[in-house]
Amino acid sequence: MNIKKYKSTVLSWSMLKIVLCNFISFFGFLALLLGVGDILWPQTFNYGENGFKIIIFVSIFFALIKSFPKLSSSFYYSIPGHKIEIIVGDLFSSDKKNIVIGMSDTFDTEIGEIISKESIQGQFLEKIYRSDKSRLDRDLKIELDKLKLNPKIDKEKTIGKNERYDIGTTVCIRYGSVNYFCCGYSFMNNNLMAKSSFEELWISLGKIWNMVRIKGERNAMAMPVIGSNLARIENVNYNLLIKSIILSYVVNSRLTPISKELSIIINELNAEKINFLEIQNFLENLDK
Q1: Most buried of 75, 125, 212, 248 (most Cβ within 10 A)?
Q2: Do the beta carbons of residue 288 and residue 22 sit within 8 Å?
Q3: CA dihedral over 197, 163, 229, 207, signed as positive or negative
Q4: Domain boundaries for CATH 3.40.220.10 within the chain
Q5: Contact, 177 vs 93, CB < 8 A?
Q6: pLDDT per residue over 98-115, tens digit each?
Q7: Are the C-beta atoms of residues 82 and 260 closer than 8 Å to each other?
Q8: What pLDDT is stored for residue 67 in this prediction?
Q9: How far is residue 251 from each of residues 28, 119, 143, 171, 222, measured CA to CA in Å?
Q10: How far is CA 92 from the centre of its chain?
Q11: Helices 276-285 & 13-40, crossing angle to 10 degrees?
């Protein structure tokens, strides 16, 4: 593990508390074991000061081994029967049948001035559509038209698309064997800056789950941490965004099942922002 990269987990109060608890457990167990041995075989071991130091060293060693966090968090909920996992990796290397892609309310796709090449949407166009923007635009338009919505024309937006859909509008594009759920969760202003809010994120998540119920066939799904990076929601840190996605999914799944598995995929560059122990505790506490 690269401690610098995962310092938010390793160098955290949560980690310290777990190490301390494990140290006390190991130390108590060893002290009890050796104490019983001293009663049964008095004057045999004569631990002394050096023995005491060895017990402390061994307890610290095993406490660290047991406490050191994994690079993922996961939990299985027996009701309604699904697994949630948070892992570091590449969203587009996922073997999931359903993948969520965050977009803006105008569903712009132009790489460069409007959409960053490094963004999830930029990678979606490049890796999945092989940079065929026309085909992606056509597929989006077909699915948006099926919803029979009435987008508002923004005449002041002169670069890119100017049809605005309601925040959270979600369409399903099937490419190969994978369903891509494209959600317009952010507002693309006329200065080509995408903005969103916590309230808009919550609304959008609900609409994503609804569309996945209709089109996803309860297959395993994967998604990035929408609401971060270029469409960042102000005053909400990375851990809180992940918790919000998890909470929304769990609450909505208990109303009506969504999928058998949700994987939240973290880009390696963002891994240091996550406290995996904190996320793991959150996952487990939702089942209580």
Answers
A1: 212
A2: no
A3: positive
A4: 72-285
A5: no
A6: 999 999 999 999 999 899
A7: yes
A8: 65
A9: 41, 28, 27, 22, 18
A10: 14
A11: 80
Q: Which two tokens stand for residue 20?
A: 């301390």
Identify which has the larger pLDDT, 146 or 94: 146
Give the separation between CA 266 and CA 185, rounded to whole angstroms.
19
Pairing type for strands 98-104 and 178-188 reads: parallel
- Look at residue 79 and tell me whether its pLDDT is greater than 90: no
Q: Which residues contact 32 (CB under 8 A, 6 or more apart)?
A: none
Got the DSSP string for 16-52? HHHHHHHHHHHHHHHHHHHHHHHHHSTTSS--HHHHH
Mean pLDDT for 209-237 is 88
Residue 124 phi/psi, 5° resolution?
A: -60, -45
Tokens at residue 82, please?
């699904």
Taking the chain, what is the end-to-end CA distance rounded to the nearest angstrom?
Answer: 31
Place of tokens 């963004």: 119
- 72-285 homologous superfamily: Leucine Aminopeptidase, subunit E, domain 1 (3.40.220.10)
Alpha helix (H) residue ranges in 75-156? 120-123, 133-146
C-alpha–C-alpha distance, residues 223 and 236, integer Å? 18
Unique residue bearing structure tokens 């060693």: 61
What is this structure's pTM?
0.80
Q: Identity (one letter) of the amino acid at 158?
A: T
